[in-house]
Design goal:
Blueprint lengths: L9 E12 L4 E7 L10 E4 L10 E12 L3 H18 L10
Antiparallel strand pairs: 1-2, 1-4, 3-4
């Protein structure tokens, strides 16, 4: 863009999106080219049309992604609060069982 300075923490990278929609597994994984890894607090946007995989299939798609690296404060905050947010995802149940 004219007159704007590009954020040095933001870059484009090619990636492969692997999606499985089966009875055994429902998941999506993104694998970045060139050994790029994401760290706590980083943001990733995968570009392209929405992916739809019919039930019973697994497919791979080539896409372009934008990665924005977190700054030191964002990274520290994500690490500090991440455990608390993870606990919200956990489901605990207690049952009384007598032998």
């Amino acid at each position: 863009m004219l007159g704007t300075k590009r954020d040095p923490r933001t870059f484009e990278v090619a990636c492969t999106v692997e999606v499985e929609n089966t009875f055994e597994s429902l998941h999506a994984h993104v694998r970045f080219d060139g050994g790029v890894t994401v760290n706590p607090g980083d943001e990733v946007i995968v570009h392209g049309k929405p992916i739809e995989v019919p039930y019973g299939e697994a497919q791979s798609f080539r896409r372009q992604a934008t990665v924005k690296r977190a700054g030191p404060i964002e990274r520290l905050w994500t690490r500090a609060t991440g455990d608390f947010e993870f606990m919200e995802l956990c489901e605990f149940s207690f049952s009384e069982e007598r032998l």
